[in-house]
Design a protein that fits this description.
InterPro entries: Homeodomain-like_sf, HTH-type_TetR-like_transc_reg, HTH_TetR, MT1864/Rv1816-like_C, Tet_transcr_reg_TetR-rel_C_sf. By secondary structure, this protein is mainly α. About 70% of the residues lie in helices and about 0% in strands.
């Protein structure tokens, strides 16, 4: 059972995180400093060191919280699919990823944009664990899809040797799964198209041609679906 002191500490840590996010949304990642957070909370900057060892640790916890929020939303989107058709689940997760990203551009930039000072340390900490959990949301879908209905993938000998070695290193050293390298290639191809397209939209790089990029996003999904043996279903 937690003590009153524990509960007070948890409440303060939660307030620090909420304050950091408000500053992030209002002013951008570079404005999220210990001094700015302390000023808004009516504390001194040194007092924050009772909760975080450094500015970098605070930022990594904020990154972890954001990844957890996004992951929870993706899982909620999957669970809302009824009946639980694989094609509809994949479409739902991709659409929710885009929806969250467009609704939270500053948060998205912190997670997927240019590295922010203080978050470069990718040691196995809270942020890294949360990022891996997020990534596994998509990999788990690929695993489920491959187990239920394998889709066509290229044999190893037809994959560029330089790419092949990188795919093997990623599969064996990072993912730790037993899948053909062609599946890993297809997974990364889909992620590059999904995250690349969303990034272009979030950062305003499609505005030169498109006022509404949703149809282009749906076109991308309609092209990815048959590559995975899925039937494309338009949004409700």
């Amino acid at each position: 059972m937690s003590t009153r002191r524990d509960r007070m500490r948890e409440a303060t840590v939660r307030e620090i995180s909420e304050t950091a996010r408000r500053i992030l949304v209002a002013e951008g990642a570079e404005a999220v400093t210990l001094r700015a957070i302390a000023r808004e909370m009516g504390m001194t900057a040194p007092a924050l060191y009772r909760y975080y060892d450094s500015h970098g640790e605070l930022l990594r916890h904020l990154v972890g919280d954001l990844f957890n929020e996004l992951t929870d939303e993706l899982h909620a989107a999957m669970k809302a699919v009824d009946p639980p058709d694989m094609g509809r689940k994949v479409m739902a997760v991709c659409r929710q990823f885009r929806r969250w990203s467009l609704a939270h551009p500053r948060e998205y930039a912190l997670l997927f944009g240019a590295p922010v000072r203080g978050v470069e340390n990718r040691e196995a900490d809270f942020a890294e664990e949360c990022a891996q959990k997020f990534g596994w949301t998509f990999m788990a879908l690929f695993l489920e899809l491959w187990q239920k209905k394998p889709f066509p993938v290229p044999p190893d000998e037809s994959i560029d040797p330089v790419l092949l070695e990188q795919l093997r290193r990623y599969r064996d050293g990072v993912l730790g799964v037993t899948l053909p390298l062609g599946v890993i290639q297809q997974y990364l191809k889909c992620w590059v198209r999904l995250q690349g397209g969303v990034s272009l939209e979030v950062f305003g790089h499609l505005e030169f041609a498109l006022d509404d990029a949703a149809p282009m996003f749906e076109l991308m999904l309609s092209e990815i679906a048959p590559e995975l043996g899925l039937t494309y279903t338009p949004p409700d």
